[in-house]
Amino acid sequence: MEVISTDKAPKPLAPYSQAIKAGNVLYISGQVAIDPETNELVGDDISTQTERVIKNVIEIVKAAGGDVRNIVKVTVYLSDPKFYGDFNKVYAKYFDKWRPARTTVAAKPPREDLLIEMDAIAVLE
């Protein structure tokens, strides 16, 4: 197993890794809308936060040698189900032709200002 880490995604805020590669499977920890350059939350709306979260996930996959097409499963946690439509509009920009399996649930985030968290599984070739 290998710990995957990149400066292009936010440093973990607690005792966990950005991702763990086990064989050719990459398990990406939940990502939130933290800008890795400023270490600050980006945006107070679901669209802006979704953009940042997806970019963070993709950068971690790239650090492991993959790209968006290696992502096979995504789990999305929205702080409010009313965000579903706006979230999907942004999500579709990144997962247009390649659509991984996905679960989306409403869940209370660890911080009130976090509107979305997303984790993913990628299979690297």
Care to describe what's here?
With 125 residues, the protein is of the alpha+beta class. The chain has a single domain, classed as 60s Ribosomal Protein L30, Chain: A (2-Layer Sandwich). 23% of the residues lie in helices and 29% in strands. It has a 6-stranded mixed sheet with strand order 1-2-3-6-4-5, covered by helices on one side. It is globular. The two termini are 16 Å apart. 31% of the residues are buried. The mean pLDDT is 97.
Give keywords.
globular, 125 residues, 2 helices, alpha+beta, 6 strands, single chain, six-stranded mixed beta sheet, 60s Ribosomal Protein L30, Chain: A
Topology, please?
Layout lengths: L1 E3 L14 E4 L2 E7 L14 H18 L7 E8 L5 H11 L6 E6 L9 E8 L2
Parallel strand pairs: 4-5
Antiparallel strand pairs: 1-2, 2-3, 3-6, 4-6
